[in-house]
Amino acid sequence: MIRRPSQSHIHGWLLLMPAAVFLIAFTYYPTIATLAKSFFSQGNAIKPSRFVGLENYEYLLTDEVFWKVVGNNIIYAATTIPISIGLAMVMALWVNGKLPFKSLARMSYFTPTILPMIAVANIWLFFYTPDIGLIDQVAGVFGISGHNWLGDPDTVLGCIIIITIWKEAGFFMIFYLAALQTLSPELEEAAKLEGAGRWYYFRRVIFPLLMPTTLFVLINAIINSFKLVDQLFILTKGGPDNSSSLLLYYIYEVAFSFLDQAYASTLTVVLLIALAVIAISQFVFLDKKVHYQ
């Protein structure tokens, strides 16, 4: 039986409908609703919400906490992204070679990735707790006094950065490992015949061929650097004095602690625009330079 074109189109749309419903319900509608809410004030039972135009955005420009949080997020992203990606590449090269107990090494590197963020935060509390934590216990052996790692504005953000690198490097390693295993072994044999060393072979052959994977990992790393909430909620709650607060946690705090959903929507719109600009810029300026045909 031959189906008519109209029947085929209907069948195709019916197959797409479940995914389209979820996409509209959980992506497009929340985005549009958040954008619309950012132009209104926060209402309550006594004073209803009203249209205020760009007033929330004007307040954002003068919000000192917002700018401090943005600065924290820039430092956090600029540190975690290159170190996580570089470490992931090194680990992938290591476990892809002729290594004893290779499967055990891969599992060890990947294990932090599968742990829930809440569990990770509680594990690292064991390290960072003043005086009785593992770090201070080891330091005490050498006569070094204890330190409140999560209570010091100078060290708290660095502690969060270390946790993120520990958790994300193994996740990014999987992508690099998969990419390395698709490379033809003939490339390495040809390089050896030409007398190329390991560093030259990596710099001139492997690294350029891994650039598409690096672009993919880079985009994921940037998105991850702007969506950290769990660890901060357990470890520091953004303190002390917002020294460890990041943008998404600040949005959560404004929406659910201060109950100002209008201003939280404004902050969310700014975050979405920033991520969109970064992602589009990467594809426009880097995509053509990293694919080799």
Automatic annotation (TrEMBL):
PANTHER family: BLL4140 PROTEIN. Pfam families: BPD_transp_1. Gene3D superfamilies: MetI-like. Its main location: membrane. Belongs to the binding-protein-dependent transport system permease family. This is Sugar ABC transporter permease. Residues 70-284 form the ABC transmembrane type-1 domain. Signal peptide: none annotated. It is found in: Cell membrane. Keywords: Cell membrane, Membrane, Transmembrane, Transmembrane helix, Transport.
